[in-house]
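Most newcomers find our protein records easier to grasp once they have seen one. A record pairs a protein's sequence with a compact description of its fold. An example says more than a description, so a record of this kind follows:
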Amino acid sequence: MRETEDRKLHILGAIVEDYVATREPVGSKSLLERHELGVSAATVRNDMSLLEEEGLIHQPHTSAGRVPTDKGYRTFVDHVATIKPLSAPERRAIRALLEDAGDVEDLLARTVRLLAQLTQQVAMVQYPARRQARIRHVELVKVADSLLLVVLILESGRVDQRTVPVMAGRPAEYYAALRDHLNRVVAGREVTDLTAPLGDYLESLPPPERPAAAEVAETLVALAASRAEDRIMMAGTSNIARSAQDFARDVEPLLDVLEEQLVLLRLFTEMHVSPGAVEVRIGSELEDRALHSTAVVGAGYGAGSHLAILGPRRMDYVTGISTVQAIARYVSRYLE
């Protein structure tokens, strides 16, 4: 039984390898010609039938061979793909390119260009979480009976402010006291870390006091969000054009997603890989429908920060995983 399972996985690996290389459905005859499987044609055909019954491959049309399904790619990644270390020249090239980076911005720009070049996919890197600005002080100034100036001062010295309508009838002394309470809650926190503590603070207030305080808290969160360094740097978008056949009608929604970045930011937020570890998501495993024709290979390179490649489900996973993992480790090292 174990021998049969191993053989089926070997055949699945050969199908994935050939389909990635040729973009053509794979038949039993071509498998036997290209790979030393050590079994008869009848055995290969039988195993391919079993793989199809298990939902790992399918026949796109009657006269064609077989192509991997999302489940097939997942099985390949989890049980078949062997991560190959980068060659010595590749490692030297990565070190040489990244070591010359002048600052974090330059390092990230070099990283995405290198990832896109080595994998021929779209490369993305999330800005380091530690770049998030911290809050020094909040000031509240009542400028009219129903208007309040909310001022957010960051530790960098940057000042953002917004005038907002508020409930009438609250005296200036109320907002002075609220300012003191809010500063105790948010001073020193990163701009991306306000929602939970402010929510806890509002919950601690007597119910009649919450609406007025909530108006100010919501404005603070909005001001802070405008200063968040929650951004993505990207390279290799033109590689989508080279794989246009793989995306069919999905290419326009995919390009929209890449341009807007909000979906990609959410994708990075959902990743929970530690620095150097790799996570692969394939097709329908990605929540947004615009990404269902794609696969993402991502890795952590710092606390809460990630880099990734995005391409067709028919991507070279072995090269992608090896390259993403290696570059994530190099970037982690340079940011230490």
Q: What stands out?
A: The beta strands are 57-58, 67-68, 122-126, 135-144, 147-154, 159-165, 232-235, 278-282, 294-302, 305-312. DSSP finds 14 helices and ten strands in the chain. The chain has three domains: 2-80, 88-131+230-335, 135-225.
